[in-house]
Amino acid sequence: MNNFTENTQPTSSSIYENLLSQFNYAPLTILYEYIKSLDTQDYTQVLKALMEKARQNDDVNRQLQTWEQESVRPNRSRFLVKLINHTEQALEVGENNLNLSANEQAFMNILPWDIQALKFDFFYSRPLGSRSQDIFKRFIIFGDQALGFRFDFGLRVNTSFGVISPTLTPVRTNKVASIGTTAIKCVTRIIHSSNEEPYGFTVEITLS
Q1: Which domain of life is it from (predicted)?
Q2: Taking phi first (over 0 means left), then psi (-120 to 50 degrees means alpha), and beta for anything else, what does residue 155 get?
Q3: Which residues on adjacent β-strands are paired with residue 119?
Q4: Fewer CB within 10 Å, N side or C side of the chain?
Q5: Could you please report the per-residue DSSP string of the chain?
Q6: What are phi and psi for residue 167, nearest 5 degrees?
C-alpha cells in the first residue's frame, strides 16, 4: 500500500484522479469503478474505503507469504490462491470435487470487491521409480448458470528416466473460464512456485 494520510486536502477538480494515483493495488479504471460503487461524494469516506481495500490486499499478500514459507505436513503439496474480485457481483461456491464442509464452502464464497486467500494441502505421493502421474486434479465452480466461472487446477509430475537418475518435471494447471449466460472477465496466473518436491504453487485469479 502506498503512503497516504487522511488529512490530505483536494486542491483541484481532479480530486479523484489525484486520490487514486496514490493507490496501486488495482488498475486506475478498476479504482474508478470501485469508488462509483460506494455511492457517496464524501471525500473522507472514499479515502477510508480505498485505504481499507489497500490494507486488505496487503494482509492477503502477507498471509500468502506466510503460508508459502511455513513447513508443510509430510507428503503434502500446498496450493494457494489469491482471489481478487473487481466487481460488484457476489459468487457462491457451486459444484466442485474438493469435498468441502459447509463451513469451508461458506468461507470461500466470493463477496463484492473482495480480496481473499485460500489454502489447500493435497496428498503428494510419488514412489521411487514411479512413472508420470497426476498428483491432484480439481475443479470448483463459483456462481451459477446466470453468472459464474469454473476454475480448474492441478499438478502432474512427468518422469523421464536417464542413465543415472530420473528427471522430474512438474506440470501445473490453472485455468478459469466464464460459464454463465452473462460473461464475466476472469484471468489467472501463477505468482509463486517451488522447484523442489512436492512442487507447491500459488495462483492469482482476478475477476473484472
Answers
A1: Bacteria
A2: beta
A3: 80
A4: C
A5: -----TT----STTHHHHHHTT--SS-HHHHHHHHHHTT---HHHHHHHHHHHHHHHHHHHHHHHHHHHS---TTEEEEEEEEEE-SS--B-EEEESS---HHHHHHHPBPTT-EEEEEEEEE----TT--SEEEEEEEEEEE-SSSEEEEEEEEEEEEEE-SSSEEEEEEEEEEEEE-SSS---EEEEEEEE-SSTT--EEEEEEE-
A6: -105, 125
Using CA atoms, how far apart are residues 2 and 23, in angstroms rounded to an integer? Answer: 6
CATH code 2.60.270 region(s) in the chain? 72-207
Q: What b-and-e string marks burial along 89-112, b requiring 16 or more CB atoms within 10 Å of the CB?
A: bebebbebeeeeeeeeeeebebee
What number of residues does the chain have? 208
- Residue carrying C-alpha cell 471525500: 43
Contacts of residue 22, defined as CB under 8 A and 6 or more positions apart, other chains included, come to 2, 3, 4
**The CATH fold of domain 72-207:** Mutm (Fpg) Protein; Chain: A, domain 2 (2.60.270)
pLDDT tens, residue by residue, 87-106: 999 999 999 999 999 999 99
* pTM greater than 0.85 (yes/no): yes
**How does the average pLDDT of the chain come out, rounded?**
90
Dihedral sign, CA of 144, 207, 154, 106? negative
